[in-house]
Amino acid sequence: MADWGVDTTAVTAAVVAALVVLTVAVGPTAVTARPANQIPVESVSADAAPQEPTGDAWDTVPAVEVPLSSAPSGLPNASDTSVESLRVQSAHTDDRFYLRLSWRDGTADRNASSPRAFLDAVAVQFPVNTSARPPIAMGSTRNLVNVWYWSADGTSEELLAGGAGTTTAFDESRVRTATTYDDGRWTVVVSRPVAGETANRTRLAVDRDVDVAFAVWNGSHMERSGRKSVSEWYHFPLGPGPQGPPYETILWTIAGLAIVGVALVTISAVRAAGEEQG
Questions:
Q1: Which listed site, 41, 81, 121, 223, has its alpha carbon 20 to 30 Å from 48?
Q2: Residue 51 in domain
Q3: Do both 132 and 166 map to the same domain?
């Protein structure tokens, strides 16, 4: 046998052992991993004014930049929307759930007094049944959605929908909003009590992840109704831990395992070639 200067049996055994250890260590986290579309929810003090866009509470709450794209719609020029992303922060106190939404818009469209004038607006959508993900376009008759809606004329509404064209307002909205417009940027804080007090209100005091989606309208860009910028489904990680890594981490882990596997195969091939030449 040729002298390769290395004990290939020992090397192969070491690689196999490393592969087993890495698989055992990473496997459980891969199984429990959460999707990357996650918006952290921080616990904050009511004394830190989370109800205000400039409240101190938001200084320690991480922000997620949510990409937006044109909503599928049969309306003329529906694909021509202008808001490309929405910055989202989420927090809660013992009693209320808060969202701080911020996006760039060069004009503050607060007045819709003429037929060609439309309002800036933002909406947040949740499934009523938090154990199932509804169709993202306003839910369905079997899987309703709640919508928290704010428009720049100061209107805020709490809505229920079971598909496109079925939106109805609650008799009494529990949603509160506060806004600022500064340096070409809207910032809106929208909140509601954590508990859902009726059968058709989303409960946020739950031990499971809660899906959420967003929509933004730019009034001066003629955006209204179905002509809007929308997100994919995201989620609030309200379920129990352990929290797994995002998909990107899992992919890198799998790549590492593949490299180890390739090394093992290569060593085995070299060993076999050496035996033949020996």
A1: 121
A2: yes
A3: yes
